[in-house]
């Protein structure tokens, strides 16, 4: 019986792409199932590692003691990280109804975080100026003010599009990544080179990579949100580092 060289020749090359497609499909499925849960844990790790570097000297055993409002601020913002992990977990275990119910708690928490973030920024700016004799505390207000404005807008859009999961979950991720600048800035190299916003953007880019792996395209949330975030970040950095006259006038009026 003649050996079917032709059939064997066609079988070999066809089998390799099939294996490649299978591996790609498995990777895509794994990333699709675990991405948001994994990101919630990564952000929690960043918060713990970042604040663990300064929390003892800047809060627990600070000299002079920090304003009590800073403790409340820390507790509320830490609650958001826990909330983000919980919501990601509920989706992962298919408890969508619980996720939606808890979402209203998150909306209320976000509504508290924005004015609280602005208030603690002002309190700490006055504290740093009066107690620690820092000279650029008023200019630095641009960073937390931008952060709270961006968080409010993005979370507001996430609540508006809560019935469109593909929009909602990406917006919540972008908003939560935006809060990471405070933790990232605790690393000396990151703060000294003013790249905490760049690190935030890289976290958001991980979401872009997820879309490319799973969906083979980038969702429009990232296409619009990421450039807008970068513009806002650079404006905030300019206001802090250059402290133009118009920004000095605003901060002097705010600080009193």
Description:
The protein contains twelve helices and no strands. The N terminus is likely disordered. It has one domain. Helix 1 runs antiparallel to helix 10 and helix 6 runs antiparallel to helix 11. By secondary structure, it is an all-alpha fold. 83% of the residues lie in helices and 0% in strands.
Strand content: under 5%
Radius of gyration in whole Å, from Cα? Answer: 23 Å
**Could you tell me the number of beta strands?**
0
Query: Which structural class matches the secondary elements?
Result: mainly alpha
N-to-C SSE string, H for helix and E for strand? HHHHHHHHHHHH
Number of helices: 12
Provide the helix percentage.
Answer: over 70%
| Low-confidence regions | 1-16
Mean pLDDT: 92
Shape type: globular
Number of domains: 1
In a nutshell, what does this entry contain?
The chain is mainly alpha-helical and 256 residues long. The chain contains twelve helices and no strands.
Please supply descriptive tags for the structure shown above.
256 residues; mainly alpha; globular
How is this fold's topology laid out?
Elements: H1 5-52, H2 55-60, H3 68-92, H4 96-130, H5 137-140, H6 142-160, H7 165-178, H8 181-184, H9 188-192, H10 196-214, H11 220-242, H12 245-255
Helix pairs in contact: 1-3, 1-7, 1-10, 3-4, 4-6, 6-7, 6-11, 7-10, 7-11, 10-11
């Amino acid at each position: 019986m003649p050996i079917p060289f032709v059939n064997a020749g066609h079988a070999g090359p066809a089998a390799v792409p099939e294996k490649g497609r299978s591996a790609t499909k498995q990777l895509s499925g794994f990333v699709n199932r675990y991405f948001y849960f994994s990101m919630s844990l990564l952000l929690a790790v960043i918060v713990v590692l970042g604040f663990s570097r300064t929390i003892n000297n800047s809060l627990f055993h600070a000299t002079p003691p920090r304003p009590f409002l800073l403790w409340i601020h820390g507790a509320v913002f830490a609650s958001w990280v826990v909330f983000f992990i919980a919501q990601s977990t509920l989706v992962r275990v298919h408890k969508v109804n619980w996720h939606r119910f808890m979402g209203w708690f998150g909306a209320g928490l976000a509504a508290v975080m924005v004015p609280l973030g602005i208030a603690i920024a002002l309190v700490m700016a006055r504290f740093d100026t009066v107690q620690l004799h820092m000279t650029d505390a008023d200019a630095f207000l641009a960073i937390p003010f931008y952060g709270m404005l961006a968080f409010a807008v993005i979370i507001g859009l996430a609540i508006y599009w809560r019935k469109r999961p593909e929009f909602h979950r990406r917006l919540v991720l972008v908003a939560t990544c935006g809060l990471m600048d405070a933790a990232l800035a605790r690393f000396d190299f990151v703060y000294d080179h003013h790249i905490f916003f760049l690190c935030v953007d890289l976290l958001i880019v991980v979401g872009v990579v997820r879309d490319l792996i799973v969906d083979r395209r980038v969702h429009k949330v990232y296409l619009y949100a990421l450039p807008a975030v970068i513009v806002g970040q650079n404006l905030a950095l300019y206001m802090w580092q250059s402290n133009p006259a118009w920004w000095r006038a605003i901060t002097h009026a705010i600080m009193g």
